[in-house]
Amino acid sequence: MSIPTPPPPEHNVTGIDLADRSHLRYTGPLIDIHAHVMVTRPGDPKTGPPAGKGPGASSEQAETMLTVAEEFHIARTYSMCLPDDIPVLRQRFGDRLGFNGSIAKKKANDPDDEAYRLLERFLELGIEIVKLWSAPRGRERGLTVDAPWRKEAVRRARAAGVRIVMVHVADPDVWFRTVYADTAKYGTKPQQYEPLEQMLQEFPDLRWIGAHMGGDIEHPDHLEELLQRYPHLYLDTSATKWIVRETSPRAAAVRSLICRYPGRFLFGSDLVTRHGLPRDHYVSRYWCQRTLWESAWEGRSPIADPDYTPGENEATTPILRGLHLPDEVLRQVYYENARRLLETSLAGVKTPPPNPLP
Length: 358
Description:
By secondary structure, the chain is α/β, with parallel strands linked by helices. The protein has helices spanning 60-71, 85-93, 112-124, 148-159, 173-177, 183-186, 193-202, 211-214, 220-229, 240-247, 251-260, 279-294, 327-345, and strands spanning 30-35, 74-80, 97-102, 129-133, 164-168, 207-210, 233-236, 265-266, 298-300, 319-321.
């Protein structure tokens, strides 16, 4: 009886050599502005006991991820995690990590004070950024960008000295044809940006980061309109599968956009630590991100992508087509923009900031 061949791992379905990084030409430091480094434990961290607690809680996955990050020259990673994780991670990793506090309520009818207490806890722990997760699927929980309690949370964060707000405002186009097909419930994709623009207009003294290339890498023209109208808006490159899949078919347009606004883009991975992940899971995301931005490499992405629909006789993963950004643009996107943004914003933070970035 023959033994069936095991399927390839999700992080390398094409079997390429992830140790081959000869095409990565940038040698300076990077700042990862968007990641989820957490204390992990067996089971799904989203449904189990509070992070950092319970049987099997461990920071070993964080160690693995940050070791890989160092191989890819990442000098500091900004993490979204639960408040209880921050002291544990800060004690172990020091200035390798900075923190971003995601302000939310569990249910739409929960009191606003729940969100304010969460914010206060994050502020006590010295966060440098606040996050407003506002994907369409969060509407049932009242997680719209411009909810009154969120406006108040932003005001309180600003009063405490925080000057950067990150927003997840939309999801891939393909999701609006599938997950969000009910527009009466979720709205259209363009409608997701109406409350974001209201917040950008109401808080022009803050710096805003549109996560995942502003949630609309499929439409570089729309991103350019936002960048033109709102000089305090920045975009991060996080969400590797989505960004690789949708940037590559429009590589010339995205490259041109970044080169016209080189000071407005920030490197981000959106990597999440989870119990039991192999080292190469983290390698694959950093490898794809850096390959996409700094090289002329072209081939199939090594990462399994359930949102990609191959054509007849096509491979099961999308094309990754490198943009080969100019050296001076890479330096800004990978490091200088985040360094400038964070060091300017930290001037008002009441909790002592981490050591200066290298």
